[in-house]
Amino acid sequence: MRSLFPVTDLTTTAASTDPSGLLTDREWSFDELAEAYAYPTTGASWLRANMVSTLDGAAQHEGRSQPISCAADMRIFGTLRALADVVIAGAETVRLEGYRPARAREAFAARRAAAGQGPAPAVAVVSGSLDLDFALPLFTEPLVPTLVVTGAAAPADRIAAARKAGAEVVVAGEGTRVDPARAVRELANRGLRRQLTEGGPRLLGQFVAAGALDELCLTLSPMLTAGDAQRIAGGPGVAVPERFALASLLEEDGFLFGRYRR
Fold this sequence. Notes:
By secondary structure, the protein is an alpha/beta fold. Helix content is 25%, strand content 23%. The chain has helices at residues 30-36, 71-83, 91-97, 109-114, 137-140, 156-164, 180-189, 201-209, and strands spanning 2-5, 16-17, 23-24, 46-54, 86-90, 122-126, 147-150, 168-171, 194-197, 215-221, 245-252, 255-261. The chain has a 10-stranded mixed beta sheet, sandwiched between helices. A hairpin with a 2-residue loop joins strand 11 (245-252) and strand 12.
């Protein structure tokens, strides 16, 4: 991996040089990746999204993101999870991707302890209907309780089922729908300030439309898929496109890993 666009707010560019002074490729350590993707230290909350897209704009292939990903992308994926207090995902993505509880990773244990974090991030599932299988390991085997984010008018029997399974229910909307900006606030009020959403596209589109997204980590995959796969964000559009600033850009094997901030 090499840094194509190091910026001054990064504590390291993690690039090595040969005797001629030219940048050379090497595998970045988890510590270097953690420094490069560190969350801001100030502010009530910070919502970051992590998504992957092909050259022709597909966010998935045959319903899943894994076929358009790569090993370096998964290293960054793991790093971003290890830095977060909470991983936010839509119910459909949880079902399609087979979500499991976030795991503790030894490589980040000291960093998380120093930041006052538990051994692994919580997972928060956004669902208005709570049409979820509460017998899955995501709910029965987490290191920290899984949260379900829903509206005040969610079915009472599904709320009871979630709580019986050990999930914490977070109300972030007046009806059956979840208010994206309120979801961010409610999670932050529970001490979950460093937030990471992995989509899917519908949920990310809601965060974008609500003006709630602070940062996008986007992997551009050097693949073409055609077809009618979703983009990384869908749903309602914004009246005026909001411009984000490029914070850093990394490359490995033709994959580009960009980080954009509001």
